């Protein structure tokens, strides 16, 4: 079957890989001149398979007033006149209850573990180099209330198959001595030995390499409209002319919302802008070995070869990939305060990207009311983590195979 995948980020490229394994003739379209140029380019780099609990939760709801009013807050709401933004926000607030958060966590963990298995199978069948390794992840807490919430989440996830450990502040320092500079505010942490790290952009490039020439990447091609008639997609109007296929997969991140509107789909996806810096390590003795998440600062650290990726902030509704100097400076300052003298801050590589998020953080995967249009989108900050499993789930649906997880849990509500 001839299939066009719209989007050459990590979700689109893994989708192309799994579809190609079934012998389909796949073409990937993207308006960028190279693969992985959007949210996949310099994200947090953590493969956090056990940390997929939704942002919509009672804990976040309690803290929301503080985040929205505090100057320099890591979470910011950027209001617009778009009615879709307010509908998204209303659904987000409705999801901030214990029952919905627990149900969503279970579904996200199922997809995440499915994704971990799918990624490992991909690498066993097709070795690819993207600074990937299993290094574990430590999430540190700076308040008693935060630690109580984290331990409650640990107990919930233990019943769902997660293997995690609650650590004291001293345990955290024994595991990661580089955290000595924040000893004064460490209360404890949660450690997950099974977590992994990797360069998402490099994986996109590797996927393009191993898929060539079976999969065509029509880069620098802007899709202007999804053309439909009689309950089907009849083609894509692009700046290079009309392109046709038997099946179409929409995996274009935040751009999916506008493209889906052409096809009569109401996709509850909003951009959440995040930032990162990548800094060269100059003192390896102080650098973290494991991935670190600092809940107090809402900042993640990932060791990538001879560099450290630092990422943070969530600006809900920010529609442009603007590099705000104050955000970049805050990340650099936070890196220096947490791991002093570890990195050279003279030549950090800054980046910002738009995470395509649904109100519940759960992605939308599967069929639509148009019988030859499928979706694989809305992964938020977890695109790297969930991409391989989402792609495998979609390929199973296309092939008519019974998926390893319930497809109905991720289907678009029609």
TrEMBL record:
It holds the Pfam family DAO. InterPro entries: FAD-dep_OxRdtase, FAD/NAD-bd_sf, K_uptake_TrkA. Residues 2-396 form the FAD dependent oxidoreductase domain. Keywords: Oxidoreductase. It comes from the Bacteria. GO terms for cellular component: cytoplasm; plasma membrane. Gene3D superfamilies: D-Amino Acid Oxidase, subunit A, domain 2, FAD/NAD(P)-binding domain. One of its GO terms (molecular function) is D-amino-acid dehydrogenase activity. One of its GO terms (biological process) is D-alanine catabolic process. Belongs to the DadA oxidoreductase family. This is D-amino acid dehydrogenase. It comes from Limobrevibacterium gyesilva. The lineage of its organism: Bacteria, Pseudomonadati, Pseudomonadota, Alphaproteobacteria, Acetobacterales.
